[in-house]
């Protein structure tokens, strides 16, 4: 196709540019045309990668589950990715148009569940779309129950739906697409509680086959995982161009149908052994080879008041960890809330595009292990100390400076820096002078 379409077009362009009237021999003109074609096609082949790589960092997300009003618009539009209650597309439709005008590259994801549903006393009196779906679940008795007939509850005020039932998978996906305008209004969907272990939801045996018998735990989870994979595949089929993110597990069988996942409460306690390296290994090296493009990840750190580290240090540790890869970062008060509009000095920085992959202080990126990590950007440098000890590094003299901030002025003081001593589980962003 390139030979038949593009090359003749560029050959004509070379004549329009004057090659045809220049007083060169036919062989020279032919060589010049071929050279021009090669250069132009090379630019075309490189261009998509250049455009993708031009994304400026950091990329900031907000996992915002408040039912917001117009007074929140000005703060919300600043985020590069928003995960919002699906009702907002109906009750706050004006925000969606404002967001796209202000932030045309921003992404809006609808917050939904594959196999869970809140009890109606919490939200549904005010939002009829969910009420109608809730009534259908009750009418068809789609709830997931234990062998005593009690409905399973994975979260306070929430019930589980039996995703192994094909009628539920079809009803849920079809209804949500229509009710919340997923194909036209949103950039994608955020599926929450995509867990591989359903047995953790109940202290009693789960009747997943609806035969009032106790199936082995492994069988319950295997049926649950297969049904979830079928649901994600159906989501991709019905929403082929949308971003599909999950919050739950990194089960390999699910990854080919989605664009990525959220690492909630980063480092995510239920990812591997709950360590920094367990989440980062998935984020940096495993999932990018499995997920669809464009890949998208969110590192969602929570502010833990019980930790000795300050709020700023906890935020920096999460943000700089996210900057070791190409994902988004969010920071809030955790799973019981997800309703903060916190904004930090670091969010306003422009690091440009990444120039290198994340490497540890030994210069290796192969082994994701505790230590001092760094990544260079066109306008700065990111450092992460994921260990439990102070780490130090010498930098090129005169190349970097701390930015001038107002929130943590002892750290972000605007001064030049050649030697950095970084505390345990902390991060730092430096700018090029």
Q: Structural class of the helices, strands and pairings?
A: alpha/beta
Unreliable parts: 1-24, 35-54
Please provide the ordered H/E string of secondary-structure elements: HHEHEHHEEHEHEHEEHEHEEEEEEEEE
If helices are DSSP runs of H or I spanning 4 or more residues, what is the number of helices?
Answer: 10
Mean pLDDT comes to 87
Briefly say what this structure is:
This protein has ten helices and 18 strands. The chain has 433 residues and is of the alpha/beta class.
Tell me about this structure:
- The two termini are 47 Å apart.
- Helix 1 (2-16) packs across helix 2 and helix 7 (166-179) packs parallel to helix 8.
- It contains 10 helices and 18 strands.
- The chain has 433 residues and is of the alpha/beta class.
- The radius of gyration is 26 Å and the shape is globular.
- Strands 1-2-3-6-7-8-9-10 form an 8-stranded parallel beta sheet, with helices on one face.
Task: Summarize this structure as a short list of keywords or feature phrases.
433 residues, alpha/beta, eight-stranded parallel β-sheet, six-stranded antiparallel β-sheet, 18 strands, 31% helix, 19% strand, globular
């Amino acid at each position: 196709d390139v030979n038949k379409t593009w090359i003749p077009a560029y050959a004509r362009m070379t004549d329009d540019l004057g090659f045809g009237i220049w007083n060169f021999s036919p062989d020279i003109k032919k060589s010049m045309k071929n050279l021009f074609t090669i250069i132009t096609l090379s630019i075309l082949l490189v261009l998509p990668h250049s455009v993708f790589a031009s994304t400026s960092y950091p990329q900031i997300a907000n996992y915002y589950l408040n039912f917001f009003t117009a007074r929140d618009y000005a703060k919300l539009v600043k985020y590069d990715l928003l995960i919002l209650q699906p009702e907002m597309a109906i009750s706050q439709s004006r925000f969606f148009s404002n967001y796209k005008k202000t932030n045309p590259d921003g992404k809006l994801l609808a917050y939904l569940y594959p196999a869970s549903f809140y009890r109606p006393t919490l939200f549904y009196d005010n939002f009829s779309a969910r009420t109608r779906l809730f009534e259908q679940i009750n009418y068809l008795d789609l709830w997931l129950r234990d062998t005593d007939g009690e409905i399973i509850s994975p979260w306070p005020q929430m019930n589980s739906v039996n995703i192994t039932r094909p009628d539920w998978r079809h009803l849920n996906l079809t209804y949500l697409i229509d009710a919340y305008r997923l194909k036209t209004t949103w950039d994608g969907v955020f599926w929450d509680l995509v867990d591989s272990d359903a047995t953790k939801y109940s202290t009693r045996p789960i009747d997943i086959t609806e035969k009032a018998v106790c199936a082995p735990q492994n069988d319950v989870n295997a049926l649950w995982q297969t049904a979830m994979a079928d649901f994600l595949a159906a989501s991709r089929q019905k929403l082929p161009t949308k971003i599909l993110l999950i919050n739950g597990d990194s089960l390999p069988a699910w990854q080919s149908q989605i664009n990525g996942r959220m690492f909630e409460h980063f480092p995510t306690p239920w990812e591997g052994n709950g360590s920094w390296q367990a989440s980062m290994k998935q984020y940096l090296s495993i999932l990018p080879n499995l997920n669809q493009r464009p890949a998208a990840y969110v590192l969602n750190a929570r502010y833990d008041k019980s930790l000795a580290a300050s709020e700023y240090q906890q935020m920096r540790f999460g943000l700089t960890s996210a900057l070791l890869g190409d994902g988004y970062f969010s920071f809030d008060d955790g799973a019981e809330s997800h309703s903060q509009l916190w904004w930090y000095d670091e969010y306003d920085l422009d690091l440009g595009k990444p120039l290198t992959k994340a490497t540890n202080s030994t210069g290796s990126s192969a082994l994701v292990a505790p230590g001092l990590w760094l990544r260079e950007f066109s306008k700065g440098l990111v450092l992460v100390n994921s260990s439990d000890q102070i780490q130090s590094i010498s930098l090129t003299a005169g190349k970097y400076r701390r930015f001038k901030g107002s929130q943590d002025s002892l750290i972000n003081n605007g001064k030049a820096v050649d030697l950095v001593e970084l505390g345990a589980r902390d991060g730092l962003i430096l700018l090029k002078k």
